[in-house]
Amino acid sequence: MDNQKLKRLRARRRTFRVRNRIYGTPQRPRLSVFRSNMHIYAQLIDDLHGVTLAAASSCGKNSGIAYGGNVAAAREVGKKIAEAAKAKGITQAVFDRGPYRFHGRVAALAMAATEAGLVCTNPEAIRAKAEERAKRRQEAPAASKSKAEAKAAAKAPPKKTKTAK
Question: What is the pTM of this model?
Fold first, then answer.
């Protein structure tokens, strides 16, 4: 199999793994995200009836976004989808990241929607994980240096000293 086929296969598996655990209802719909290179799209989906309740995207004349392939555009789309949800009386959603990792534009959209009133993530838990990760990164270089120094010392031949004749 070539690399592109493997990439698509891994993405499909990731999508099924994520969507296997979540289900949208009329009270708590699924917030599905699609990310392309140029734009980002979000939909609130009621899986019980198979209906899209609200949608927002970074493309289109009325979006007001010049370029949709960055974090700023994702934040705007998150705010728009939260406003559309509020208009429909929806306050909670299940976040569906699809085949994408939860970072960058996808995380920015989710965080913006949560801050705008549509609860779909737990910002405190995300910040705590980020702080823990940063703490581990700070500790890791010191540990790796000492391991590297020990390895180099073990490989180096013993120093020869001159003896007096």
Answer: 0.73
